[in-house]
Amino acid sequence: MPEPLRVTALVSGRGSNMAAIARAGLAGAIGARITAVVSDKPGAPALGLARELGIEATTLEPAKDSGRRAYGEDLLRVVDAGRPGLVVLAGFMRILDPVFTAHYAGRLLNIHPSLLPRHPGLHTHRRVLEAGEAVHGCTVHFVTEELDAGPRIVQARVPVLAGDDETALSARVQRWEHIIYPEAVGWFAEGRVAMRDGIAWLDGRRLDEPVLRGET
Q1: DSSP 207
Q2: Of residues 103, 112, 123, 178, which has the active-site annotation?
Q3: Which of 121, 123, 139, 208 is deepest in the core (most CB within 10 A)?
Q4: Is 103 assigned a catalytic role?
Q5: Residue range 123-142: average pLDDT?
Q6: What is the pTM of this model?
């Protein structure tokens, strides 16, 4: 059997998506293993969770008064040391430097809690509720220099229910995040999904629209 794809996860918070991918790999459900976790925050709960899962976990805080380029160069050096075939952003709350995104172009994934291109950026659940939208969800996409604008791979949709608040809506979306993110990583590990010329492809087919999952 081939060796599992080496994956490095970048985290800032709880790390639930990192853990979902890691557990899928440990269970043999996907041909990938998270072998390193890097956080920009020393107190991130994801660091302890990674260690509980037997994964090497490192903190790389930005130096005081350092810019995005300096941090990006440091991050590139640390991530490269782990020799990953894929880097996943799992709640990493820092905009990546273009040098980093260029170096890992086509090998860098993110999951975003909205149905991109709707609602890039922060506070997506609140914005969906304030807009009175009927459907919400999450998107796995390749990362490019433009924030939350890389080629989409797979989305999951959930209905917005009467009486929903941010907490309830977030929980329903996150349940699907934990399904579609490992799925997309598994596709990448199998060579089924790739980014070519700024476009996502799955099984040799151009993805003009992402694969759809979910409840609606």
Answers
A1: -
A2: 112
A3: 139
A4: no
A5: 98
A6: 0.97
